[in-house]
Amino acid sequence: MNRILIALAIVASIAFFPSLASAQRDYFTAEEVELIRDAQEIDHRIDILVHAIDRRFAALKLEVASPKRPKKDEAWGELPTGTRLELLYDIKRILQKAIDDIDSLSERPNSAVVYVDPADPKEKKSKGFAELFPKAVRDLAAAAKRYGPVLKAELDKKNDKGETGSILDSLEMCDEIIAAVAKLPAEVKKSRN
């Protein structure tokens, strides 16, 4: 009897999983994938991911006080589309990707891509992990501070369980990001001479 139940479970899972795989959607647009692929320096990559999240909030018609960007930027393509649940889930997944990228680099700081300023070819000093990593974390934390109040307001609305789960997960990640800034050394302000 147990073998029959196991066999039925296997058959049911084989029938169920192909439909589950086809239901998955990519949480980045094709244009965003290209921009992320080109953004090798961590600070630039985080800027791209933050703007991708800002675009999801814009698609949801939620104001997160994002920095002004050109109305029409062909590099980014059209605003992402999807249901409210899909866009909230996208926000959660992109926040997780940003955290994963920062965590990955913090574990292997020697893998940081070094940036040389093309505007000043005589300048020998390049920006590496010590400069780019704290900037990336601070930029992500600034975005998390913008997202928190909007996500909390959305939590007060009538949501289905999936929406509530995505919002709660995103809020938790925002809190973790903001807490991570406290672990960074104090930001050194450059004086003008």
Topology (elements, then pairings):
Elements: H1 2-23, H2 30-38, H3 42-59, H4 84-107, H5 129-155, H6 161-181
Helix pairs in contact: 2-3, 3-4, 3-5, 4-5, 4-6, 5-6
Give a structural overview.
Helix content is 63%, strand content 0%. The protein is mainly alpha-helical. The protein has one domain. It starts with a helix and ends in a 12-residue tail after the last helix.
String of helices and strands: HHHHHH
Q: So what's the overall shape?
A: globular
Number of helices: 6
User: Class by helix and strand content?
Assistant: mainly alpha
Residues in β-strands, percent: under 5%
Number of E strands: 0
Largest sheet: none
Distance between the termini: 84 Å
Mean pLDDT: 81
What is the total number of structural domains? 1
The residue ranges in which pLDDT falls below 50 over 5 or more consecutive positions are 14-22
Secondary structure: helix percent: 55-70%
